[in-house]
Design brief:
Elements (H helix, E strand, L loop, with lengths): L1 H14 L6 H7 L1 H17 L3 H15 L2 E2 L4 E2 L4 E2 L6 E2 L4 E2 L4 E2 L4 E3 L11 E2 L4 E2 L4 E3 L3 E2 L4 E2 L4 E2 L8 E3 L4 E2 L9 H11 L13 H29 L14 H16 L3
Parallel strand pairs: 1-4, 2-5, 3-6, 4-7, 5-8, 6-9, 7-10, 8-11, 9-12, 10-13, 12-14
Antiparallel strand pairs: 14-15
Helix pairs in contact: 3-4, 5-6
Length: 262
């Protein structure tokens, strides 16, 4: 028992830089309190003491804001950070070293009895506000982005974001990424600070424009070489410089609109 408690506390230190000492974790971390109460309710549930188990679970919900059904199976070093608003259903299964943030739901999409909640394999991280709904598996080491709604299996090591949840292809796996980056650098454009992994429709449109610009650029170079080889007079002129301050102004204007809720 004390060994398991020590293991729980160490898992907090490994994943939360705000944790300062063991006493603070014992007394001020509702995620830990919810897990310890779940172990008690789960022990009662496994001995067919359903009503006492549900009462312990309900007390844990009242105390911590985290609802874990006594029938849910939870692995070792499970860490709930902040925790408020988390709901974990009866047939959910959680592996070792899993991390959940506030507002996460591991729910079902059916009223039928049997397996109806997700299985999270070891090392899964689920971001704040995400909903994982249905009797499927989220593979080991996968990451679910904040506010994502996931209703289909997630392969091990993948990252899923958005509504509905979709798997992000890593930049180094995208054959066009290097070409787009080179063209963006050439014209002095950085996609207004949008990360490469963000599933932003505007960023996707800009990516297609960069592909088109690169194709035009290559075609113009080939035409220039062809004209030179034919002995035609051809003056290769440098492209006009794109001033960074212009793009900075656009970025500041967009940030102002976002701040104003436009």
């Amino acid at each position: 028992m004390f060994e398991r408690l020590r293991e729980d506390i160490q898992s907090v230190f490994h994943r939360d830089p705000a944790a300062r000492n063991a006493f603070e974790v014992l007394t001020c971390y509702p995620g830990m309190h919810a897990i310890w109460l779940h172990r008690l309710s789960g022990w009662l549930w496994s001995r067919d003491l359903e009503w006492p188990a549900r009462m312990v679970s309900n007390f844990g919900r009242w105390l911590t804001g985290i609802e874990i059904h006594p029938g849910a199976k939870v692995g070792r070093r499970f860490f709930i950070d902040h925790g408020m608003g988390i709901v974990i259903g009866e047939t959910a299964e959680i592996g070792d070293d899993v991390t959940l943030y506030q507002g996460v739901t591991l729910g079902g999409t059916s009223w039928n009895k049997g397996k109806r909640h997700p299985t999270l394999e070891s090392g899964v991280v689920v971001g704040a506000g995400a909903k994982v709904l249905g009797p499927f598996t989220v593979g080991a080491g996968a990451k679910v982005g904040s506010n994502a709604v996931v209703t289909k299996p997630v392969p091990a090591g993948a990252t899923v974001v958005g509504i509905p949840g979709r798997i992000i292809v890593k930049a180094d796996e995208d054959e066009t990424h290097a070409k787009r980056k080179a063209m963006a650098e050439k014209i002095g454009f950085d996609a207004y600070g949008v990360g490469e992994d963000m599933p932003d429709p505007v960023a996707k449109a800009i990516g297609q424009l960069l592909d088109h610009l690169q194709a035009v650029d290559l075609r113009m170079e080939d035409m220039g070489k062809a004209l030179k080889s034919l002995g035609c007079e051809y003056r290769e002129q440098a492209l006009p410089e794109l001033r960074k301050d212009v793009f900075d102004c656009i970025e500041e204007r967009n940030e102002t609109k976002v701040g104003q809720g436009i």
